[in-house]
Amino acid sequence: MSLDHTGKPAVAPNDLSAFWMPFTANRQFKENPRMLVASKDMHYTSADGRQILDGTAGLWCCNAGHCRPKIVEAIQRSAAELDYAPAFQMGHPAAFELANRLVDMAPDAFNHIFFTNSGSESVDTALKIALAYHRARGEGQRTRLIGREKGYHGVGFGGISVGGLVNNRRVFGTLLNGVDHLPHTYLPEENRWSKGLPEHGAWLAEDLERKIALHGADTIAAVIVEPVAGSAGVILPPKGYLEKLRAITKKHGILLIFDEVITGFGRLGTPFAADFFGVMPDMMTTAKGLTSGTVPMGAVFTTAEVHDAFMTGPEHMIELFHGYTYSGSPIACAAALATQEVYREEGLFQRTAEIAPYWEEALHSLKGTKHVIDIRNLGLIGAIELEPIAGEPTKRAFSAFLKAYEKGILIRTTGDIIAMSPPLIIGKEHVDQLVGTIKDVLEALD
Question: For this chain's UniProt record, which GO biological process terms are given (predicted)?
Fold first, then answer.
């Protein structure tokens, strides 16, 4: 028996008990673990040496694919040259270069970047900025935040408060006060089998006027929505919905925040969903595709109007008492800069727009497959909704996930929905493999 440095028996390096895994059925996993040990381009390598086609870009994040040389080399070089630099009252060139690069690629309204380390931190940052913005303008009574049912905005207290996924909220108590929720846009009876944006439901945005009538416009600081709700199972905005939401918020002086953690950096074939829909919010929260998932990093995009509201008072005073130890980390900035280069050099956003119709047709070819009750898609996002087993929700989709992994593809499930968001480097042969394997899996399921 080996001993650790204290003389106690050492835990074996591959013992699974110490790691409390996030969003995981820990007991089930540790009974039959699924270990990934390497990755390259479109594939993972499992511990037993199999190639696993990545149908989810990791967790919606590896947009440029895996272990891309330009990104790997940038991370290595930064680690050897400047491992860490404080962001409080200090700076390093890569953070400013990255912020400028992001401003250049963003819609014209956005010209300031606040760096975080994740989507959850980006959301909490944007909510705090919204509250502080109104206070800076002399409207400190605007404290109410409005999210949406079925929304996912990370796992910080702000994010789960404005979020609308009940399992993410139910065991954590009261959360933030002064939060309300708009209805979700999932209308299966009207929009089932839609290809792209559904036709029906733009009127749902008008519920915001009811919230305003209830609480008073002058009490509401911000509305936050995902342009496309990903973690709830790919719920799409009906045509005209986001335009209505923008018009109502602007009319009443309410900030509109787009949570673009999933849709940002090419997922819809444009840099951001704001570009795709032609709807400009006041802030955008991002992460994931910013570094193609290689190093944790997030960024909040703001307009000059929001930023400049804080640039008052003595110049030597801190304008916003907020930030993180790793805001603008040198290694993360290096990864993000290299990732943006890969996107640009390989034309991955345009490539996504070009392959999206093939993706759409492939997904919808599963209509009529055993257990399938709806299919939804936009850009390189897709959802296959399954009829749940009576009395055992989520079990059928989870069984499909396990069988798919055995057959060499990685998918993701949320409830009884199979969700997919492959790397933007995906080829038609990969689409065929994903969809064909899913069909085989579903036809074999009880």
Answer: biotin biosynthetic process
